Amino acid sequence: xxxxxxxxxxxxxxxxxxxxxxxxxxxxxxxxxxxxxxxxxxxxxxxxxxxxxxxxxxxxxxxxxxxxxxxxxxxxxxxxxxxxxxxxxxxxxxxxxxxxxxxxxxxxxxx
Amino acid sequence: xxxxxxxxxxxxxxxxxxxxxxxxxxxxxxxxxxxxxxxxxxxxxxxxxxxxxxxxxxxxxxxxxxxxxxxxxxxxxxxxxxxxxxxxxxxxxxxxxxxxxxxxxxxxxxxx
Lengths: 111, 112
Hints:
- The structure holds two protein chains of two kinds.
- By secondary structure, chain A is mainly beta.
- Chain A is built from no helices and ten strands.
- Chain B is an all-beta fold.
């Protein structure tokens, strides 16, 4: 499939371990944040989102943490599986206007 | 199930030709977007639309145009294809501003 990025930061984890993917966002006025997963040859897929009035939000095996003080977002994946291997990127949105996407992190899960 | 589709999935064209990439969504979303994705650049916004007859330029709109004649479709046209437009193109839609976007599978365009 199409290569998303050959020079992306890479995180390598053992199957069953927890993964933490970090993202620094750029605009202190951003009030909505989204994490996407992109598998090779596919379009980005929505994973989880969080609004700026929250610090933490949990989904199925995923948790997003937001630290507005340092403009930092993280995605935690519990019990990482081979199917989680993909590029993950965060996106920020300012008051409903255009969404800005980060470059992404490649997650590699070792069986 | 609602979905967003793109066609063709792969296209090879020659420099100077006009090319149109199709995007069709059945989510009934008002907002639709076109992005290109290149190594080292992530997703860059080309054009977007907030409804029928509405179109707006994104950060890399030169050489591209869109039209929105109905809710479901936002075709992207390359007026005169250039080698710099070789890329993977993604269409997306969302229910409103400030909500997640749903992406299509992408079109890989090669301009020779």
